[in-house]
Specification:
The chain has one domain (2-183): Alpha-Beta Complex (DHBP synthase), CATH 3.90.870. The chain has helices at 5-13, 36-42, 68-81, 116-125, 144-150; strands at 2-3, 18-20, 27-30, 51-53, 86-91, 107-111, 128-132, 156-157, 170-174, 179-183. It is globular and about 45 Å long. The protein has 5 helices and 10 strands, in the order βαββαβαββαβαβββ. It is of the alpha/beta class. The mean pLDDT is 93.
Length: 194
């Protein structure tokens, strides 16, 4: 259903499923405590974690935990690549709802998109549980018309172009002393940064 920005944000705050454009592919999102709605809509296996997305990095630091040295390393990477198409998989704090990553609640993927509409929404809703809009195992849907046909229950944003770059984010997991690339997207992470 096509709605205004105000209606979309209000619906998101009360736990409805929404979609919004990002710098990569459109996001399917809800508040983290309602993340099971994403799994149901996508027919997604619980062994595939969701991403916490926010308007700015500062909103995410309470949801990860590490040593002072690790935080410094993570913040250096974030200052170089965010906002942008980089998802970091870091050790999760106890603030992360288990439903975000049911089979491995010790880690959480976090990202700040480089997209004005996404940042406007996230600044007002707060953190959102997100993933691409598609049935599990299918290609990501790339425009509002496809989303409305395949996910009629999901609120979409009227008069907004949904086209991102069409390439999912690079996913880099912190191993405790280095980065492991889980998915290569448009951002090439310099693995030699220390």
């Amino acid at each position: 259903m096509n709605v205004s920005l105000e209606v979309l944000i209000d619906a998101a705050k009360v736990g409805k499923l929404i979609s919004f454009p990002t710098d990569t592919v459109p996001a399917l999102a809800t508040i983290p405590t309602q993340a099971e709605l994403i799994y149901a809509a996508k027919q997604r296996s619980f062994d595939k974690p969701l991403i916490l997305m926010a308007a700015k990095a500062e909103d995410l630091w309470d949801y990860v935990q590490g040593s002072d040295i690790e935080y410094k390393i993570w913040q250096e990477v974030v200052s170089k690549y965010w906002p942008g198409a980089l998802t970091l998989v870091l050790p999760a704090s106890n603030k992360v709802p288990t439903v975000m990553n049911p089979t491995n609640p010790n880690t959480i993927g976090i990202r700040v998109p480089n997209h004005q509409v996404a940042q406007t929404i996230l600044a007002q809703t707060g953190l959102m549980a997100t993933t691409s809009v598609n049935l599990s195992g299918q290609p990501a849907l790339e425009n509002r018309a496809e989303i409305e046909v395949n996910f009629p229950e999901v609120l979409t944003l009227e008069s907004t172009e949904y086209q991102g770059f069409g390439i999912p984010s690079t996913v880099a997991k912190w191993t405790g002393n280095d980065w492991q690339i889980l998915r290569q997207g448009s951002i090439k992470l310099d693995l030699y940064e220390k």
